[in-house]
Amino acid sequence: MIPPEPLRLPFATLPSGNLDLAGEFQAVLQGWGLSPGLAHALWLPLPMLLVLAAAVVGVLASVWMERKVSAAVQQRIGPEYAGPLGILQPLADGLKLLVKEDVIPARADSLLFTLGPVLVLAPVILSWLIVPFGQNLLISNVGVGIFLWIALSSIQPIGLLMSGYSSNNKYALLGGLRAAAQSISYEVPLALAVLAVVMLSNSLSTVEIVQQQNSAGLLSWNIWRQPVGFLVFWICVIAECERAPFDLPEAEEELVAGYQTEYAGMKFALFYLGSYINLVLSGLLVAVLYLGGWGFPLPVEWLASVLHQPLSSPLVQVVTASVGIVTTVLKAFLLVFFAILLRWTTPRVRIDQLLDFGWKFLLPIALVNLLLTAALKLVFPTIFGG
Amino acid sequence: MFGFLKQVGDYSREAAAAARGITQGLAVTFDHMRRRPVTVQYPYEKLIPSERYRGRIHFEFDKCIACEVCVRVCPINLPVVDWVMNKETRKKQLKNYSIDFGVCIFCGNCVEYCPTNCLSMTEEYELAAFDRHSLNFDNVALGRLPT
Questions:
Q1: Fold of B57-143
Q2: Are A342 and B35 inside 8 Å of each other by CB?
Q3: Which residues of A touch B22 (CB under 8 A)?
Q4: For residue B41, which residues of chain A lie inside 8 Å, CB to CB?
Q5: Contacts with B, A 62-91, CB within 8 Å
Q6: Which of A85, A188, A223, B66 could be stapled to A290 by a disulfide with Cβ–Cβ 3.0 to 4.6 Å?
Q7: Among residues A261, A225, A151, A227, which one has the least CA distance to residue A381?
Q8: Closest Cα to residue A336, out of A67, A52, A51?
Q9: pLDDT tens for the 386 residues of chain A, in order
Q10: Which of A145, A139, A133, A129 is nearest to A294 (CA)?
Q11: Cis (ω within 30 of 0) for the bond into A297?
Q12: Rg (CA), chain B
């Protein structure tokens, strides 16, 4: 595939254009006598693998954090023998699941049973496509950006329903139905909250959403302009991740493990991986949409001018990029931590309460928020992105 | 019209109360994180048993007068007191004494009623064994110092 004319390459130029990883890499390959298309094709898998590795490491870290934080909240110790402070525990868990027997129940629909977990995991991983860690540190700056994520996340309930139905188990079926109902009802306020943000930044692209938040550091983040939207989005995202207090698709007291009941070994691991990748992704997206993405609380340009460093110098470029990555990850993990804390604070809601909350509370509030944002955008175009 | 407004007001008040409740809950769980774990990691750490803990029974052979009070107060007459009458001294002479800890319920009656205090409670509680017969302690085993 030949890239279009204004090269929007992954890991391409930073603002003033000294650090161009993609360009340099392809120049080297072309220097060896490869065609530009081939050089581009050789470059493409690198950022993908990098982001995939980052996602997996993020999952391991968040699983470890979940176990440690939940232990601390309950005044336990948590994992401590696998590596220092039990940091290798998620790895050990994964290894155990990897070598475990893969059981397909006797009268299950084996095709759907196998396809289910894949359909749950694949869209979540694909959504990492649009997560920016810096100006150009993302796999692809798709124009429809955040909309792509919303579209992809509605594939997930199909997978959940599939695995729930094909397990030939009443608990799994109930869990699958609940998961589908929950995902579909919370997608609506979620999309409305995103729409309000999109209205502010006049763009669906995640990079531009972050850029318009970074004019004045902390003060220009979207959370100040969209406090209600932030809360609605956060609640919906937790519901989409099926985490407590909205974890009733896998409510262990009533449904054993919901749609995961019949799964073991690697297929179960896919669900597990999917739920945590989704959690980290949600944290990242909340950071991108409302907390200024890679933006440092103090504007980097201002800091550079205070330190009398020209923005274009390579050192500043590298430092800015790394600060961006670190801030994004920090913000995301702060939110993940908050989600974990929430899990051990709130009791699980009933299914009728869940649907009431989604349709009768979040949806009207998200709608009012959207209309209010639109009105404010017309009245104060300078502040609300005219 | 005003009924509707009242409904809206009540609803938002409820929502605010719920939000306050969740915030308080979060403060509680957050506060718990800085507390020390209450876990005792058993094989490596052990709690000191409380005063008057009723563990394995210790027996001093020389103090025993073979009166069999311990047998009488025991709910299941568990202690086995093996004695013979010494004709010259006209006193009971103890030959063997044993308690089966696989059956004992550690009620402590024998210790309480022993007239010569030859029975006493220790703080030893790790009595697990692979063979239940090895839990039948004779006077030598009962006389060992608690570990």
A1: Alpha-Beta Plaits (3.30.70)
A2: no
A3: 342, 345-346
A4: 77
A5: 69, 71-77
A6: A223
A7: A225
A8: A67
A9: 444 444 444 444 444 344 567 777 778 888 887 787 887 788 788 888 888 888 889 999 999 999 999 999 998 888 888 888 888 988 898 899 889 888 888 888 888 888 989 998 999 988 888 888 877 777 777 788 888 898 888 888 898 889 888 988 888 888 888 888 888 889 899 999 999 988 888 888 888 888 888 777 777 888 888 888 999 999 999 998 888 888 887 777 777 888 888 888 888 999 889 899 999 999 999 998 888 888 787 777 777 778 777 777 777 777 878 888 888 899 999 999 999 999 889 888 888 888 888 888 899 889 999 999 888 888 887 777 75
A10: A133
A11: no
A12: 30
B36 contact residues in A (CB cutoff 8 A): 75
Nearest CB to A345 within list B25, B36, B38: B25
Residue that has been written with the tokens 């020390």 in this structure: B36
Collect all residues of chain B within an 8 Å Cβ-Cβ radius of residue A73. Answer: 29, 32-33
Report CA torsion sign: B85, B88, B90, B96. negative
Strands B80-86 and B136-137: unpaired
ipTM value for the complex: 0.70
DSSP A127-167: HGGG--SSSS-SS---TTHHHHHHHHHTTHHHHHHHHHHHT
Q: Which residue has the tokens 């989704």?
A: A278
CA A373 to chain centre: 24
Amino acid making up residue A369: N
Q: Which residues contact A186 (CB under 8 A, 6 or more apart)?
A: A235, A236, A239, A240, A246, A358, A362
CB contact under 8 A, A342 and B26: yes
- A174 and A248 Cβ atoms separated by less than 8 Å: no
Domain boundaries, chain B: 1-35, 57-143
